[in-house]
Amino acid sequence: MSSLNPLDIQQRHFHITCPVGFDYDFMLDFLSPRIIEGVECVTQGKYVRSFRFEKPTVGDIKHYMNGYFEVEYQATKNTLAVKVVCDDEYGFDEVQQRVRFMFDLDTNMQVIDQQLQSDPVLQRGFVDNRVPRMPKAFDSFEFCIRAILGQQVSVKAATTLAKRIAHSTQLTTPESFPAGIDFFFPQCDDLLNHSFDSLGLTSSRISTLQVVIRALKNDTISLDKAQVFEDFLEQWIALKGVGPWTANYLAMRGLGIQDSFPDKDLGVLKALATENKYPARKAVLQQAKAWQPYRAYATLCLWNGLGH
To answer: Would residue 200 be called left, alpha or beta, if left means φ above 0 and alpha means ψ between -120 and 50 degrees?
Structure first.
């Protein structure tokens, strides 16, 4: 049962103006196959998910803000209509900021277009002759877990494993939540001593999860979006089980670091292959120099060109 008191729940509505050319359908198409069943859903053009994140407090006792939100695009106004239901007043602004980040509303796409628009390889993944906006993570910790689960497996497999973790912690939502929104995704403290046995994870993957969760708890590493990319890479790659692909993918979609580049990603290699032969890593990095400092968006174009 949920510990959320229905009497504490408040509701607010926001309208967020979108940039000219915003492509909501592209965002949903990207997010849909990655939906964690029970935590989020896409229904008739509406994105819905639960949320649970820590409230800034003084002292050692942690308090969480819990709720759910719905996002729907209003084409005639070019706005996102956002409904937020939360048990803490602080959560409304936090959700609004996270939605802006998730849908990449504040990125200056004009400068990125200017940098990347002339590359014929990247053009295969353009949307309406433009570089698409980056579908980012609403919850950076959740995405950190997903990035680890996604090592060397398909999107479908990683999403299934994420669902199993969410369901296994039994952080259930109130009955008043929308249909299909039955669980909160756990946070760092929820998973610190959690057993990942019987979820279909390999022992090495479980070990990596535990290493990362402990490192985050001890502040050895950080999910701060403002940190220096080179420092982030150095600290994360130093962790056992976390390689360059995981760190770059987390930086790319979890933290919104624009020059992150998972150069060993299979989709990247497929997109850059010639005559079905993958390029050498040195050649990939050399080709990607022309995309700096927006290699994350170049990666998205490469994926999109493959139909990802």
So the answer is: left
